[in-house]
Write a structure and sequence with these properties.
Chain lengths: 360, 186
């Protein structure tokens, strides 16, 4: 049977129908996308673990899960920190939990030999070169809580959490999550957490362009390792034959020291203030406490403002430098020398130092 | 004379790959770390491996491991081929002019539809950037000081890690970073 050639008007009609269909489909797609987009925004995953890539998640339960994961498992591993500045350092880690006691041992594999042991907030760092044991307390024990419970909800206003594709790191299966800052006052993070426990296996700190400033990761990890808490505690207490150093640290307040600050970056607030000897004095116990350290946080990132009297011999180089994700801004304010240090963009440090004022 | 670069010693590149996969033995890690300060190319390889890894997973590009020169050398052949194809593009445009008006109209409507779709796709992503633009003050680049060997600065970094470095993402992570990363002046 011969095929009939389409009439020119029929071709025009067909094309017009196709055209109309394409317009309708396009409009339907536009409105459908708007509907789906709103639905997705409203449907924030309540589960603490990662879901399908791109799904928004709640930050607070995710953070709590990663923090609790530490107390659930014993593990050993090799921990590597690398930065965009091409530095790379590594350490061997032992971690164990004995009831409420958290014990850790960190044996440096790079640089000068050094072993640090931690029992909750107490740390001892053994420095074999000088046969010195350095006794310190971590922030947890001196006023700065590791997790600011009241502030976790507020974190959702400053960071957005989004699931990414699962990955395998250090031989374990992980969920990947992107912690994206809502403004330019803070860095973002990409975190790899072990699927079953939420243990943080790898963490990248990202700048505003999404470039990795620093990566801290286990390159090898053994979960439920046979780590003995009593053995680590024994090593920590065995300081015989070592010269004990306890750096001076006195709690104070900025107002007591004669300082105030104006116009904090959104979400940041002061959390602690201490006095300690200036590094120029070698940090000796008898040295005068001339250095004030005022600490600020937004709940994830922290900044320290170090303020000390200006010394024309020692204090010569103003400006910016960085160490991995840690930014450093050094500036003179009249008779004072201010060093701002933090895992935040440089603009946050300069803003804080500009807002620092001497009280009358 | 050969210099000790990672390109000439494949074992180091292989070690980097194994390190990324979490399958590097302690002995090999020791060898790699010993080589790291001697071979600047290792850092580039390390960055490149991350780019490749993330690219394969379809995640956002996060590492700029490609140098400007390398990027331009990749771009130039593409630009040249684009110039060579201009004649072909002109022919297509001429043929396009001979099409009935509704074909051109259909293409225009498709473009409008695509733009509308694209607008809907891009809008939610653009909002955080707008927030950044509104909140982030614009400042001139400050002078850069090279004080990485400053022992007093190291002491301040250690003090910051002690009081401010207790990483909220996980306490242990902050502690490990402090113990591992801060090169103390002690």
């Amino acid at each position: 049977m011969p095929m009939l050639a389409p009439h020119p008007h029929q071709h025009l009609w067909t094309t017009g129908v196709h055209l109309c269909c394409r317009v309708v489909v396009a409009l339907v797609c536009v409105f459908a996308w708007g509907h789906v987009s709103c639905a997705e925004q409203a449907q924030v995953a309540s589960a603490a673990h990662a879901t399908s890539p791109g799904t928004p998640m709640e930050l607070a339960p995710w953070l709590e899960r990663t923090q609790q994961a530490t107390s659930r498992r014993a593990y050993t591993g090799t921990f590597v920190v690398s930065s965009s500045g091409s530095s790379m350092v590594a350490a061997r880690i032992w971690h164990v939990c004995d009831g409420a006691q958290q014990l850790e041992r960190v044996e440096n594999l790079t640089g000068a030999p050094r072993t640090t042991l931690r029992k909750n907030a107490d740390t001892v760092t053994f420095l074999p070169a000088s046969r010195t044991a350095l006794l310190e307390k971590r922030a947890d024990a001196i006023g700065f809580p590791a997790l600011l419970k009241g502030d976790v909800q507020g974190l959702d206003k400053r960071y957005q959490l989004q699931a990414q594709a699962d990955d395998r790191v250090a031989g374990v299966e992980t969920h990947v999550a992107l912690i994206r800052p809502v403004d330019g006052w803070r860095f973002g993070y990409r975190a790899w957490t072990e699927k079953n426990t939420g243990l943080l296996v790898q963490l990248q700190t990202l700048d505003a362009a999404g470039q990795v400033l620093e990566q801290a990761a286990f390159t090898e990890l053994t979960l439920d390792a046979p780590v003995r808490a009593d053995k680590l505690a024994g090593m920590m207490a065995d300081t015989q034959g070592w010269r004990i150093e306890v750096p001076a640290l006195v709690q104070t307040s900025a107002s007591t020291e004669g300082w105030q600050i104006r116009g904090l970056p959104a979400g940041f607030r002061p959390v602690s203030c201490h006095k300690r000897p200036s590094p120029a004095g070698g940090g000796d116990a008898g040295a005068p406490l001339t250095l004030m350290q005022w600490v600020f946080t937004d709940g994830l990132a922290t900044v320290s403002l170090f303020v000390e009297p200006f010394d024309s011999v020692r204090h010569r180089r103003e400006g910016h430098t960085s160490r991995g994700a840690t930014q450093i801004w050094v500036t003179r304010k009249g008779a004072w020398w201010v060093t701002a240090v933090g895992e935040v963009p440089l603009v946050t440090l300069t803003h804080l130092t500009k807002g620092l004022d001497r009280r009358n | 004379m050969n210099s000790p670069t990672s390109h000439q010693e494949p074992s180091h590149a292989a070690h980097l790959s194994a390190l990324l996969d979490g399958e590097l033995s302690s002995e090999s890690l020791d060898a790699l770390l010993a080589q790291w300060p001697l071979d600047p190319a290792l850092a580039d390889d390390w960055d490149a491996l991350h780019v490749v890894s993330l690219g394969l997973k379809g995640q956002e590009a996060v590492v700029s491991a490609v140098s400007t020169a390398a990027f331009l050398s990749t771009l130039r052949p593409g630009l040249q081929s684009s110039v060579h194809q201009r004649g072909g593009a002109d022919s297509v445009a001429k043929a396009d002019r001979e099409l009935p008006w509704w074909h051109r109209y259909g293409a225009a409507v498709s473009v409008v539809g695509a733009v509308l779709l694209g607008w809907r796709l891009v809008l939610p992503l653009a909002e955080p950037s707008l927030a950044v633009a509104q909140l982030e003050p614009v400042e001139l680049a400050p002078p850069v000081v090279s004080s990485t060997s400053d022992t007093q600065l190291d002491a301040l970094l250690a003090a910051h890690q002690q009081l401010g470095g207790s990483h909220t993402l996980q306490p242990s992570s902050g502690f490990f970073r402090q113990a591992v990363y801060v090169v103390s002046a002690r």
